[in-house]
């Protein structure tokens, strides 16, 4: 195992992305009302939430794959190349910007003065938006680190 990867800036940012992505997925998909706990794919009045969930899932899987590959001594940059990896990072970044923008829009729609007020969804939308924008920032930093230092 390559724990030296964790000591690099690239490794630390990738680890943070895995954590933020999991937190965003958890807040986006697991719903509990009173004593009921369930996994929700489709939200009434918030149809784009399924797209947000898919984006979060696929970008999280990508971050986990990069993290585990580097952790188990398979250098991702050496395997697929720096520019292909940068293209994949940019694709993830664009998807996450779309996801964060949609989620930000849902905050205004689900608030007390919104079109569809919901006291359960609104705090979740806030949490997912925060994690989404943190992921956007982390991908921007990771692209810069990969471009200039890897």
Automatic annotation (TrEMBL):
It comes from the Eukaryota. The keyword Membrane applies. Coiled coil: none annotated. The chain crosses the membrane at residues 12-32, 52-73, 85-106, 126-149. Keywords: Membrane, Transmembrane, Transmembrane helix. This is MARVEL domain-containing protein. It comes from Caenorhabditis latens. The lineage of its organism: Eukaryota, Metazoa, Ecdysozoa, Nematoda, Chromadorea.
């Amino acid at each position: 195992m390559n724990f030296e990867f964790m000591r690099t800036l690239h490794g630390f940012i990738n680890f943070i992305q895995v954590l933020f992505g999991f937190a965003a997925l958890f807040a986006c998909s697991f719903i509990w009302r009173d004593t009921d706990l369930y996994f929700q794919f489709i939200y009434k009045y918030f149809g784009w939430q399924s797209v947000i969930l898919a984006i979060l899932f696929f970008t999280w899987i990508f971050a986990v794959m990069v993290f585990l590959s580097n952790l188990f001594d398979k250098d991702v940059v050496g395997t697929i190349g720096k520019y292909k990896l940068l293209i994949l990072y940019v694709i993830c970044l664009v998807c996450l910007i779309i996801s964060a923008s949609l989620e930000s829009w849902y905050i205004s729609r689900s608030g007390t003065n919104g079109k569809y007020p919901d006291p359960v969804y609104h705090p979740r939308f806030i949490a997912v938006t925060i994690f989404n924008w943190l992921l956007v920032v982390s991908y921007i930093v990771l692209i810069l680190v990969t471009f200039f230092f890897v």
